[in-house]
Amino acid sequence: MDDIPVEVLRHSFQSLMEISRCSVCLENVRAEVVQCAKGHLFCNNCRKDLKKCPKCKKHFVKDNPSRYASKVVAALPPLCRYKKCGKYLKPGDDHEKYCGYRPIGCKICDWTGLGHDVLTHMKGRHIVHVISENNPGIGFQNCIPNKITTTVSVLSVYGIFFWMIERHDVEKQTFNVTFYPILNGKPQNDFYVTLTSGGTHFVTKYKLDMDPKNGENRLFVPGFMFPNLLDEKGCLNYKIF
Questions:
Q1: Which residue range(s) make up the domain with 194?
Q2: Residue 15's domain is classified under what CATH number?
Q3: Where is the RING-type domain (predicted)?
Q4: pTM over 0.85
């Protein structure tokens, strides 16, 4: 391999990737592979609604592709499953979990888009509380109302976006604040929320779970704890950083 020029290797690799490209979705074939009589490859899901190959109009073969072809396809590095990303994945790579091309829906309005577009959407449509090195933390003071309320806010914490949803339930005498990370790549730092007990310097610190599969980080305060947590104004005090 050392005596093969890099350009030759690159050209050969690109040729293999083109050969293994599905003729329907134009992505590299995944999992179960189907082929037509002329050898064009398809993802099994893409082939389901087809009677003939859209490229050569030949019928699909009943038998599975040759073991050699299957091994070649399996040996090629898979592409990220999110379209427009184009990143090749290494074994055990968790890139797709944090990919900036994952579809994301806004919790404030009906907007849906990609992780890469969240910043533009947030700044254009919503008020964003920014936490940066010059502003090392934003404190939130929530006075417990006499009715059920739900408030949604957007935070930018050192470049990472969060939706913060606060819910007061007077009937159940509970307060919830939930942080949803909006990731555009794997975070490199840890994030925390602190809850300060009213009238004291005692602080409870919670580490946020940044795994998108888990979805949310909920700070739950039952009513019987309010007397120990509310300050003299009847408010809860907490901070994210």
A1: 103-240
A2: 3.30.40.10
A3: 22-57
A4: no
